[in-house]
Amino acid sequence: MNKIYxxxxxxxxxxxxxxxxxxxxxxxxxxxxxxxxxxxEAQVEAGVINMYDGLQGVNSTGSNDNRGVQIEFYMAEMLSxxxxxxxxxxxxxxxxxxxxxxxxxIVTDYYRSMYDLVFRANTVLANLEAAEGKRAQFEGEAKFVxxxxxxxxxxxxxxxxLIDELVNPLDTDKxxxxxxxxxxxxxIIGDLTTAIANLDNGSKNRASKAAAQALxxxxxxxxxxxxxxxxxxxxxxxxxxxxxxxxxxxxxxxEGNGExxxxxxxxxxxxxxxxxxxxxxxxxxxxxxxxxxxxDEAVAALxxxxxxxxxxxxxxxxxxxxxxxxxxxPDSGDPVLAGNDWIVLRYADVLLMHVEAxxxxxxxxxxxxxxxSFNAVRARAGMAEVSGEITKQMLMDERRVELAFENQRFFDxxxxxxxxxxxxxxxxNNGYSFNASDLILPIPQREINLSNxxxxxxxxx
Length: 461
Prior knowledge:
Serine Threonine Protein Phosphatase 5, Tetratricopeptide repeat, 2 domains, 19 helices, two-stranded antiparallel ribbon, mainly alpha
């Protein structure tokens, strides 16, 4: 459940959201002077809380709302071989059959949502002088959120504009000039390094030291910096602050449990702080429901290798030929106002990243440390221990069944360097039209139009 409630910041929330939605639009309404508001530590903290409100995304199916993480499954699961739509209709189906256009509203929403987070974080960072004794903490939290947003952007869209400060709306070069991915990653690594130095391990719904360490480990794995990733994973493990839940299903039903490192909090039956992706994954009539349904390939993987993790899906009772994700079924009340937290980082992910870091660029590893981390995850699922070599394919399979439907699969395939081969075969088998350009999504046409030609498009779109 969401432990962060917006009470004293309604005015600034409205202010920030109004400009955040059109952050890359170079119009006078996109910039608001914060001078005179951030005068006390409490007011800066209001801005910090507003960042987490942005992480929640807007519980809506509107075309102009920043839904953020509530639609992230399209980019991370439905682009992979894990999930699809129920009816193969509308913009949603473009993700499963690889026919995404630059005008796709879901893509536009996600791009805009991530820059909305960047704007909120930059607003906090621009006003740290008023934070007094909590300045370092607030800086760490803001840089964690900014790094999280840019990591999503660079993995999804490739080179993107680097906005590391509040900008004048007329500064179109800053807002629309794409920066090489190396520059984006430099900012991400710097931000997370500061977050690690400034934060401790406290709330699971706010940035923490371990959350920054785990996210930075994933960044380093993405960049091929294996020694750095291993050290960070071992720091999280060595902290003693986290442990695997004994029962796999409890990870998703007992919110705030000891396995969760960082989660985006939601509250049920609260239109301002709930989520509706739980409802969208259920069976209903219409194009905004019945999405993120489980593919036959994912069902087969979970049945063969998942052990108790096969509980991650269920047969659709109304249409038994289909299968639904169960990890985030609504815990109570109206599913359109669900309160299920979204887990961004958890301990099992860190253990498997630890194996990946030890393996590095090799095809496998016999390291006892890697075996310990690998077998801990398997044992919890009721699977036999591995005593010999852990191969790259074994690790990929383990990540697939352990982290199924948690927005990891597409990025895992890319990070392991097998996305083109795996998705080409999957596409051929299902009559889809995947090609290499689909590994990066199009820059939204709306943003290109606003830039008057400054912002360029990705190849293939």
